[in-house]
Structure of Zeta-carotene desaturase, chloroplastic/chromoplastic:
Amino acid sequence: MASSILFPANSVTGIRSKTPGFMLSGGHRSAAQVVRIPRFFYVRSSLDFLEANVSDMSVNAPKGLFPPEPEHYRGPKLKVAIIGAGLAGMSTAVELLDQGHEVDIYESRTFIGGKVGSFVDRHGNHIEMGLHVFFGCYNNLFRLMKKVGADKNLLVKDHTHTFVNKGGEIGELDFRFPIGAPLHGIRAFLSTNQLKTYDKARNAVALALSPVVRALVDPDGAMKDIRNLDSISFSDWFLSKGGTRMSIQRMWDPVAYALGFIDCDNISARCMLTIFSLFATKTEASLLRMLKGSPDVYLSGPIRKYIEDKGGRFHLRWGCRQIMYDRSADGETYVTGLAMSRSTNKKVVKADAYVAACDVPGIKRLLPSPWRESQFFDNIYELVGVPVVTVQLRYNGWVTELQDLERSRQLRQAIGLDNLLYTPDADFSCFADLALSSPEDYYIEGQGSLLQCVLTPGDPYMPLPNDEIIKRVSKQVLTLFPSSQGLEVIWSSVVKIGQSLYLEGPGKDPFRPDQKTPVKNFFLAGSYTKQDYIDSMEGATLSGRQASAYICDAGEDLVHLNSSDAQDLKACKFNTIYQFGDSISDTGNAIIEFPILPYGRFPYGISVKEATGRPSDGWLMIDYIAQSAGLPLLEPYENPNSNFTQGVDFSVAGVTAVSVDTLIKWDIPPFVTNNSLMVQVDWFNKYLPTFCTNVADCQEKIKSSLFMIGTIGFNDYNLAFGQNKTLEEIKNIMVPGVVQTIIDSVKKIISFGATQVVVTGTFQMGCTPGLLTMFSTNTSAAYDAHGCLKDYNDFFMYHNSHLQVALEGLRKEYPNIHIIYGDIYNALQSILDNFSKLGFKSLTQACCGIGGKYNYSRDRAQGCGQAGVPVCSNPAEYVFWDVAHFTHQANKYLSEWLIKNMLPQLQCA
C-alpha cells in the first residue's frame, strides 16, 4: 500500500457504499459460502460519532504519538524554506503558517503529495504513487485533514480486515463487536477463519506475552518496551513467544508487507508491535478508511488550498541543486541559502530556517558530503529504501464479486469487496478495487473494477517491462478470483519507485535522525525521521509537527543567526574608516555648523539614551560598520575635539554631490551649506598631514583603510524636485553630472593611495515620509504594493544603474583597486519585502513627527524635535525615524545586509 502503510491513508465520511459488506464465521469460505449481511448495523455513518472516537484515540495514549496542541508562538516571525511538497513538507508548512510564519515550499516535480501524490495522465486516468489506506490510529493525519477540511473526503469501511486466499477463499479479522478494546480485538483473533485453531491458540499466547498487554494500563511504558525490541525481527520475536510459522505466512506476512513492504523475517518487531499496541487498546485504531477519490483532489488539494490561503507559496519544478553553508567564528555550521534550479533558470533562496522534507534517497542526494563527518548525518546513510511497484488494472467487469457471476459481468452497478484486501497467495500483498472503495475518481460508468495492487517486495519486478508485469499480476488476480475468468483488462498502468519506505529492519531505528539537526538553521521532516510511529502517512504528518515545534523553539536564535550571518569586517583588519556623504552618515558635523538643528537634543538619540548629533533615534549604518570592523565610532571632522586616530566622518547633513556653482548652472537654488562631496574630499587632503608624515607613509597607512562614499545625491535631486522639474529633465541633465562628480571623488581618493573603496547608491526615497507627503496623489497607480511612489523609486534606481555602469568603467581603469558598489537599494528592499518578519509595523510613517498620513508636516514648526511633536512608543517598529532618516533598528539591519554583501568583494583574508 503506500504511504502510511504506505498504504497512504484515507479518510472519514461514513457514506454507505453500494456494495454490501461480508460477515464470515468458521473456516475459510468459498465464493459460494460467503454470506451477505446488512451493512448498516456496523458502519459508522455519523461523522460526528466518528470524530468523537478519533479524538478519543489520544486518551491514555503514548504522548509521542499524540502530542498536545502547540502553544501560541510569541517570537519573531520567521521565513522558512521547505524542500519537498510531500505530506511531511506540507504538514510542516501548515503548522508554521498557523504560528504566523512565512513559508515557501519547493518541489522538483510537477505535482505535490510525494509518495501520497497522484496525477492525471493524458487520457484522464488518475495515477497514484501507491495504495493509500487510513488506519483509525492516524490521529495526527486526521487532525491535519480536519483542519484543512479534508476529513469529509474519507470513506469508512467495514471494521474488518479481509484476506483473499487462493481460489477465492475469504478469511477475516472481524473487529465488529458491541464491546470495544481490548475485547473486540480478542474476539477478532480468536474467531478468525484465516488461521487454524492451533495457530490461533499459539498466536494468542504470543500476543499475551507482548508489550501490548502493558499498553492497556501504561501506554508510554509499553512504547518504551516496544522500542527496545527494535533489534530483532518480528519473526524472531513472535516465534520465541510461541507463535507459529503458519501464522506468519498466512496472516502476518501480508500485514507486514502492507505496513513496511517487507516480510516478518525482515521487519523489526518494533514496527509490528507499535501497530498491535494501538489495535489492542483503541477500538477505532483498526477501522480502515479510504479517500473517496484521488489523493491529489481529496488530500493534497485541500492541504494546498489551506497553505495558500494562509499565505504559503508552492514553487513546482524547482529542485534544490545544493545546500549552501558556512561556519561561524566558533565553528558552528549554518545554512546560507539553497541553490535552486528550474530548467535553465537558477536562483538562490534565502530564509531563516530550512527544512528538508525528503525521502531517504532524496536526503542522501541533498546533504553536503562534508556533513557526513557528523555522526548524526552519517547515520542516515545506514537507511535504505524499499522498491515497490504499484499496478492498476481496469477490467470490463467486477473482479471481486464472488457470489453472483452474472452480476459480476454487468456494468450498470458497482459490486464487489469494498475494503482493503490482503493476500498471502500473490506477489501483491495488499490491494483494493478503487472503483468501489474510492468511486469519485475511479468508478467509470460502463467500465468495471479498477484493481490497485502493491507488489512487495518490488525487486523482482523493477527490471521487467510493464507488459510483462501486467501479464504476471493479472494471472495472479485470476488465481485469487477464479470467478473473474473471462474478464479482460481494458487499461493498465505501472508505477515503479526504486526506494519508497525505508527498510524498517531490525536495528535500524537508532539511525533515524531527529528533526532537529546539528546545523542550527537546518531541519528535517519525513516519515523516516525519528518519531514514535512507523514510516507512513501518519509518521510523515507527525514528523512535520515535530519539525515545526523545533523551529518555533529556536525562533530568536534563527533570526539572530540570519542577521549576523556569523561574519563581520574584523577579518579585513582595517585600521581606519573614512566616511563621505550626507545626513544618512553624518555623526555630528551638521549641528556644529547649524546648532539650531534638532539632532543634538532629544528625542534624537532616544534609543541609545544620548543625543549625539546623528539624525536618528540611535546609531547610523556607519556606526554599525565601524563596530563590525572592531573600530570605535567615527567622530565628526568639524569637531575640534574629535579623535581621528582610527577614522573620520566627513559627511554633512543636507549637502549635495555637485558644487554650488553647478546647481546654479542648472537653475537650482543651492542649500545653505556648500560642503559638497569634493569639498569633503579636500577636507580629507587637509587631514592627511595629521595622520601621516610623508607620501610614502600616508600611502602605506591608507592601504589598510576603508573608504565609504555615500549615500550622496539625494539632496541634489530633492532641490530639483522642489523647483518642479520633471523626472525626465532631472534624468537627462542632472544624473550624468551627479554620477560624474561621485566618480571624480573616487579617483581623487584613489590618488591618495586608497585600495578599498565602497560607493553607496541611493535608496527608495519614494518610500520616505517627506517625498510621500510632498507628492501625495489620489491616483492609486502611482503607488507600489508597499505604498511607495513608483516613479520616484524608479528614478533612484535609474541613478543607481548609471552609477554602477560608471563604477564598472572605473574598475577597468584601476584593476588593482577594490571598488565596491554599496547596494543600499536592495538592502532596503529586503526590509520592504520582509518588514513584518523583521519586527517592523510601519514602512512609510515617521516615528517622530505629526501631520497627515505619514506623520510628517512641511511646517518646520511641526518637525521632529520641535516642542509638542510626538514620538512613537516603539521606534524599533518603524523603518523611518523622521522625514527621511532611518531608525536605529532599520540602520542596524541595513548595515548587516551591506556588510554581508560587501565582504566577498572586499576579499579580506
Remarks:
- Residues 440 and 534 are 29 Å apart (CA to CA).
- The chain has a mean pLDDT of 90.
- The first strand starts at residue 21 and ends at 23.
- The chain is about 35% helix and 15% strand.
